[in-house]
Amino acid sequence: MIGAQMLRFSGAVEDLSDADRDALFARGANEDPVIAQRASSIVDDVRARGDAALRELALALDGVSLASLEVPRETIRKALDSTPPEVRRSLDRSARNIATVHRAFMPASVEVESEPGIVIGRRPDPLQRVGVYAPGGRAAYPSSVLMGAIPARVAGVAEVILCSPPGPDGVPPRAVLAAAALAEVDRVFAIGGAGAIAAMAYGTESVPRVDRIVGPGNAYVAAAKLLVVREVAIDSPAGPSELIVIADDSADPSVVATEMVAQAEHDPLACVIAVAVGEGIAARIEQALVGLVERADRGEIVRDALAGQGGVLRVSTIDDAIALSNRYAPEHLLLCVSDADVALRSVRNAGTVFLGERASVAFGDYMTGANHVLPTGGLARSYSGLSPLDFVRWTTYQRVSEAAAKSLANDVGIFADAESLPGHAAAARQWSAR
Annotated catalytic, 14? Predict the structure, then answer.
């Protein structure tokens, strides 16, 4: 067994210590005070000094001096035109699938008559302006551009802006700009981190204030989003990537291990757990992990993630496995079991669910059309993945006929009297004699 050497959690779930059990479920619960304080300082500075603060942050954090925060349209167009054909083909396919799926997810207006003559309606109205954040740093993330901007466009948002950190040449990577062009982003700004979140939340001389901010980011981005949530809506509080794989004896252990390594390579703080139904499959998954980790290109990150938050845990039944997953509420849940559709019926808390070994989480990250902007840290108990619902607000309206007004008047007057609101009672009763 390799638990002591490689994995933070290993063995039967019922044998976990109280400390291990707390650590398993409490990921993301403890905010780093240093990061929170630094993010707060950046947000306050950008709110107070606008573009000047953003330029100083770009010089200090990204090592570039920005003459303009906004990327010229011509630069964005050239990035798409110069994208290698095979990359362009993948971007196009991803964009098409995201648009297809999210058009199907669009909410519809509804009207209902609660009583004769009383009509209540609810209408989805697109937001005016949305800000999409695409992270930089370890890699370029054009997928995050597509996942944020295309659902906003599908929902009818009037203006979509993108913020992403600049590279050495003062603009985001070519792939990010190409994705922005494909997603019909209106304006792109070469700013990143907590400063970008503050700029979109409060507005600066160059960056317009938005109605909602969406997109993944590092710990500073996550902290900044929580700081501005009273000023602007956000998608959901976000943390490092998470995966639970539920595997029974029908699963291929190498597939399970490969999926774990794929999510672990995101970040040293990534959380990857296999919940194995039976001791035999658990041992085979651990053995498969050994060779994969030794060969992993991002091996140091993978090892840190597995040692810090990774695990292979044993349970007796699939019901036990799903109960553990529902409590954990993972960002990604992969069901490598003999009947994934049956298991899905009992799943309640997960950002997105992958049914069977062929439904690789990587497919969902890039190409299936489902969104990869998902709740983490257990927040799948109450938040959902990004969709057109995040880019509309609902207008509720009420229509009352003359006969219905007379019918309502007395009962509403009595109700208002009971709450000691005589003005309300008078407003209702004025219709009783008309």
Answer: no
